[in-house]
Amino acid sequence: MPAASSSLISDAPPAHGVAEPADHGLHPQSRMSNDFLNHYNELVMLLEMLPGMPDCYEDVASWRPKSYVAHFEDSTLHWADYAVAEYEHLDAEWKQPFEHTLAVLDEFLTEAIALLAPLIHDEHFERDPTLSL
Predict the structure, then answer these.
(1) Counting CB atoms within 10 angstroms of each CB, which of 14, 81, 89, 99 has the fewest?
(2) pLDDT at position 8 over 60
(3) What sign has the CA pseudo-torsion 19, 22, 23, 24?
(4) Beta-bridge partners for 121
(5) How far apart are CA 83 and CA 80, in angstroms?
(6) Pairwise CA distance, residues 81 & 78, whole Å
(7) Do 20 and 82 contact (CB within 8 A), yes or no?
(8) pLDDT reading at 12 higher than 60
């Protein structure tokens, strides 16, 4: 990870040609938004429900990895374009480890979802509302 004194944003001009909304959801130092993590939080919530509601597996199976930029391109947040512009100018020494971590996480989650299918579709699978992950 880069040294603490490293700049997170390259020397591109502020706002990168996109007007900075007064109430954007970007962290003041990293210039990234934790709203992106909602994509993963939704999957975790579905996985937590599976033991008691195995029929929600179809929702789990439909989950797909999504990049930071794609998340905001699909977003209805009024500052989504600004989030994309800031991310596109994020210094590579920060962006590359972030994207590598996401690639590893996405691969793990995709494989885990695939491994759940035979368990959920097993005729001996019993719904257990008291079981939580």
Answers:
(1) 14
(2) no
(3) positive
(4) none
(5) 5
(6) 8
(7) yes
(8) no
Question: What is the pLDDT, as a whole number, of residue 41?
Answer: 96
CA distance 42 to 119: 21
Both tokens assigned to 82:
């600004």
* Residue tagged 């970007």 (tokens): 26
Closest by Cα among 42, 50, 108 to 71 = 42
Structure tokens at 59: 């929702």
127 neighbors 52 (Cβ within 8 angstroms): yes
Question: What are the residues facing 90 on neighbouring strands?
Answer: 9
Q: How far apart are CA 62 and CA 72, in angstroms?
A: 19
Q: How many residues does the chain have?
A: 133
pTM, to two decimals: 0.76
DSSP-derived 3-state class of residue 92: helix
72 touches 36 (CB < 8 A): yes
Q: Which of 28, 30, 6, 1 is nearest to 101 (CA)?
A: 1
Residue type, 25: G
Say how far apart CA 109 and CA 69 lie, in whole Å.
Answer: 19
Nearest residue to 67 (alpha-carbon basis) of 46, 108, 95, 25: 95
Tens-digit pLDDT profile for residues 49-69: 888 888 899 999 999 999 999
